[in-house]
Each structure stands twice: as C-alpha cells, then as structure tokens.
Amino acid sequence: MLKDLFSKLNKKVNETNSNDGTFENSASIMTKCPNCKKILYSKELYKRLNVCTNCNHHLPITSVERMEALMDEDTATVLFEEVASANPLEFPNYGSKLEKDQQKTGLNEAVVCAEGEIDGTRTVVAIMDSRFRMGSMGSAVGEKLARSFNYATERGLPVIVFTASGGARMQEGIISLMQMAKVSVAVEKHSQAGLLYIAYMTNPTTGGVSASFASVGDINLAETGALIGFAGRRVIEETIKEKLPDDFQTAEFLLKHGQLDRVVDRNDMKDYLGKILRMHSGV
Amino acid sequence: MAFEFEKPIQELEEKIGELEKYAAKNKLDLTKEISFLEKKVTDKKNEIYNNLTPWQRVEIARYINRPTTLEYIDAMFDDFIEFFGDRVYSDDAAIVGGIATYKGTPVTIIGHQRGRDTKDNIKRNFGMAHPDGYRKALRLMKQADKFNRPVICFIDTKGAYPGRAAEERGQSESIARNLVEMAGLKVPVISVVIGEGGSGGALALGVCNRLLMLENATYSVISPEGAASILFKDSSLKEIAAESLKITADDLKELGIADEVIAEPQGGAHNDKDTVYGTLDGVLGKHLEELSQLDRDALMEDRYQKYMDIGVYEEQS
Ligand SMILES: [Zn+2]
To answer: In a 10 Å sphere around its CB, with 0-12 CB exposed, 13-18 middle and 19+ buried, how is residue A229 labelled?
Structure first.
C-alpha cells in the first residue's frame, strides 16, 4: 500500500537528510527561503507544501510528499515498484551512482507511480523526483511511465504525470533516447482510447522529457516558477552569443508564449486537478 | 583523403606516385616495387577501414561530402516534388520533404538537410531544425496518413537547434508532438540514419516501423563532445565517450534498436555514392514490401510493439 511506502520513504528521508536543512519536512525547525531569505518555521512551510508564506516561492517537494498531498486518504496503491535500473552499457560508475541515490532518497528510481482517487476520481498518477539522478529518464523510468499509461488504457482511467527531469539518462546512451519514443507510443494509445492525460510540469523539466510526454498532455499545466525548456540556458547563450532574459524558460515565460494551458500554484494543485478530472469523468 | 586517420594510406600512395614519376623520368622498370607498395596500400586500407573506431565513424558521418537527403531523393526516387512550410510561421530549410514515386508507388519523403558547402550550410542552419521544421515534417506525415502513402525519413542532424526563437516557438512541444503523432500513423514509416543522428532532433523523424542505419552513421542521445564534457568533465575525452555511449550502427543493431545496417563502400559512402544508393534501394524496397502486407491498424500496433520492447531494466521480486 501507498501508506507503507510513504512511511518507509519518509523515515529514510528524515534519517538521511537531517543535516542539510533544505526542504524535507521536519529536517530542521527553521528553513530559510532561498528567494526572499526570510526565515520560516519548517512546520508552517510544510503545511503549505513548501511554498514560502512570504513571497510564494515554490521550494522543492519530494515525489512522495506530493503524492500524499494529492491523493485522497487511503485510496492509493503504488504501482510498478518492482521495476529498477540495470546498467545496460556497463557505463563506468553508473551502478554506484544509482545505489547512492537510492540510499539518499529511499526511492528505487526517479519516478513514483500510483493509482488512487483525487477528489473522488480514480486516476493513475506518476510523479518524477529530481533528487534521483536529476530525474533523468533511463529504461526503468521509461518502463514505469509506459506501464502507467498502458495500465490506465486497459482500465479506462485518466493519467497525470508530474514531470521533473534534466532529460535523458546519458549513462544508458541511445536506450535512454528511445524511452522518449516508448512513452510516446503508450501516450498515443491512451489518447486514441479517448482518455484524459494531464501533463503537469514541475521544476525542472528540460531536455528529452520536456521534448516528449511533458509537452503533449490534453491539458498542459506547469507549477509556478518552474524551469521548463529544451536546451540549457548556457548552451543557448553560447550558440546565439546573446544574454537571455531572467524569466527565460520559466513557466510564466512559456505561458506568455502560448505553450501552456495554465500556471498553477502548488497549493491549488489538488483543487484544479480535481475539477478537471471531474469534468472529464463522464466521458 | 579526408581524415587524419587516413594519413598512412595517403603517404603510401604519394610514395607510389613518386616512384612512378621517377621510373618514367629515368626509364626504369620499377613495376615490382610499385606493385609491392600497392599491395601495402590495400593492406593498410583493410587495416584502417576494417577497424574504424566509433569516433572515426562520427567523423565520416559528419563529412561535408557525405551524401545528404536531397542526393538520396534524387538518386533513388522519381518525380520528387518538394513541399514547403509549416503553415504557421515559416519554411525551415533544415528539413526538406515532399512526395515522389518509389518503384511506381507514391511515397512521402522527409529528411534533415545539411548544407553541402558553407553557403548552403548557412541556409540549412547546418541541418539543425527549429520548431517550424518539425511542424512541416508533421504536416507532411499527416498528409501521407490521409492518402495512405508510406513515409520515408532520412535522419542527418547534430540535433534540434538550441536557440532563443526555437524555445519561444516551442522546440520541446514540436518534437514531442511528432513523437506521439508518428506513434499514431497508420501507414508504413521507415527511418534511415544516413549521417549523424543527434538526440531528440533526430528522433523527431524517427518513430518508425523499421530503423535502418548506414554502416558509418551514428545515433546518440548526446554528442560525444557533449557527453565528454558533462560526464567526464573533459571535452577532449570525446573518443572515449563515443566508445562508451555505443553509438554505431552495429551497436544499435545489437541493442535491438536498428533493424538493419546498410553496408557502405570502403572508407565511407562519399567514396562511391552510387553503390550506396543501390544498396539502400534494395534494403528499403524489401522492408516496404514487408510492411505493405500489414493493414493500417497493424502498422500502428507494429510500431507500438517495437518501442515497448526497447529498454533494459531489472524486475525485482
Ligand atoms: Zn520567500
């Protein structure tokens, strides 16, 4: 059950992150907002899903914390936890990096998938976690996402994917690039079955994930302030020999350029998603 | 000779030239010596070309005189009519496309187009497309689907263009859209990597029923230079990165991603273009014939299955 996973994961997270004072709940009593520098009670911050009460800056939130905040109580089941990464190209140091991130996050990979209810609507939800290999997509992430869509297609369920990724998992070479195609064929089948897919881009969504399933929801949402883009800022600046504006590749920048349906505050996430899901549930 | 690694061959050939000149000038019979050196040239060529490193293949794949999409179209297809524009913003010359007949059957052809010289490269943006290019490609694919024409894609790009305007117009969305729409096409789709297959910008023409790769073509999630600087923090390690990333046609065949490797003339396609067109023609014809046996739904299902099968992971109990 989801609950067991959550308690297990939260325990691990608290044990391993007790000193770095970044964003995990109860990591420390006080947390400094990296944007407005105001010192906040961690407990208060956590109640607001790690959104600064002073300046509305969205601090990171873990996949498990988001899942807990989103799903109706006692309705969720974790899916496909048995799928884990191998090292197909025997890439140097890849195995040890995976192990380190598993230790650090308590996750087995960079995405957590579950089935459950959001404001009463049964939904398949996949949440990527940028703490695990920068949320990069290799075979295991691709497989878990493709299975999530297939699972939803078979059962006639909507899918929400929260993306958070630096792109493809380079240590898996061309196999990681092909995961973009793999998830896409599953997305397309789900779509042809007339089912709803909501892409919800969170900070950061870049590279191969941005250039595949993150951008092709029936509805594309993004979280306030999220970095979203295809190429990296530095690469673009070097290519065009020009300084880019500060808001370049933010959720708000994308909204202005017609790339998003809406930018959503994290504390409105459940409300928006619940409403959208309800309006599609009679189909 | 085009590449540094061919230097030993060039030196031997120059020596033969000198000997011939010397023999003619001094009216000497050096046939024996010359044929000895010619044998050495053959041996040297076999030694070098039969043991090309992944990085040397990258150099061949990027070579300016390597045949480009338009040359393949010209040599292998009849009645090509090029179509332009995405109907939204512009015509992106980094991607070309249109309709033609192939062995009497109408087909849609789309491909990245590198420049064939500096001026052409500026027009073609070095084969690096903006969203407009991917949207033109998509428009032509949907047209092919409506009129039940097979789609043949030629892949030859360093990658999608990393620019400000490209981001503003939705580079990510344009690539992503092609992936899902190609997944849903109900006509045969064959993609051929003829040069460099660079990341998402290559894949945007690459969700196919059959992936063919020329022997010296490469296909990678990131350029060897990029991987070296990101993963090894040292861009001079590009040769090692090229090795580790497994980017050659044989690698992709072995990984179950490429369906068939197209043999090239010794040293690369640029050495004998007509032979390459002929070889590819035979392989392409065979795969199109096979796919023509499948009905529209089966073609989509075949593509779905191809990609669902790609991936190496563990299943823990
Ligand atoms: Zn703040």
So the answer is: buried
- The nearest CA of chain A is from the CA of B136 a distance in Å of 17
Q: CB B200 to CB A143 under 8 A?
A: no
pLDDT band at A12 (very low <50, low <70, confident <90, very high): very low
A250 touches chain B (CB under 8 A): no
Measured between beta carbons, which residues in chain B are less than 8 angstroms from residue A244? 164
- Report the C-alpha gap between B287 and B270 in whole angstroms: 24
Cis peptide before A204 (omega within 30 of 0): yes
Q: Token match 């090229």: residue?
A: B242
Tokens at residue A209, please?
């994930």
CA dihedral A14, A20, A24, A25 (to 10 degrees): 70
pTM of the model: 0.94
Tell me which H or E stretch contains A136.
none
Q: What is the pLDDT of residues B292-304, one digit of tens each?
A: 999 999 999 999 9
CB A208 within 8 Å of CB A177: yes
Is A213's Cβ below 8 Å from some Cβ in B?
yes
The secondary structure of residue B248, as a DSSP letter, is B
Which one, of A72, A77, A97, A76, lies nearest residue A87 by Cα? A97
- Judged by CB atoms closer than 8 Å, whether chains meet at B200 and A208 is answered as yes
The secondary structure of A162-206, three-state, reads: EEEECCECHHHHHHHHHHHHHHHHHHHHHHHCCCCEEEEEEEEEE
Could you count the other beta carbons within 10 Å of the beta carbon of residue B90?
Answer: 16
B140 conformational bin, left if phi > 0, alpha if psi -120 to 50, beta if neither: alpha
**Chain-chain contact of A175 with B257 (C-beta, under 8 angstroms):** yes
- Look at A257 and B183 and tell me if their CB atoms are within 8 Å: no
Separation of alpha carbons B145 and B185, rounded Å: 6
Q: How far is the CA of A236 from the centre of ligand 1 (A)?
A: 29
The radius of gyration of chain A's CA atoms, rounded to the nearest angstrom, is: 18
Crossing angle, helix A173-192 and helix B171-183, to 10 degrees? 70
- Nearest CB among A179, A189, A231 relative to B167 is that of A231
How high is the pLDDT of residue A6?
Answer: 61
What type of residue sits at position B200?
G
pLDDT in tens, A113-139: 999 999 999 999 999 999 999 999 999
Distances (CA, A) of A264 to A123, A211, B79, B198: 19, 21, 52, 34
State the smallest CA–CA distance between residue B19 and chain A in angstroms. 48
- From the list B49, B68, B207, the residue with the least C-alpha distance to A213 is B207
Q: How far apart are the first and last CA of chain A?
A: 29
Distance CA A187, CA A76 (A): 22
Give how far the C-alpha of residue B15 lies from the chain's centroid of Cα atoms, to the nearest Å. 35
Please enumerate in sequence order all residues whose Cβ is within 8 A of that of A17, keeping only pairs 6 or more positions apart, or say none.
Answer: A24, A27, A104
Instruction: Round to whole Å and give the CA distance between B268 and B52.
Output: 11
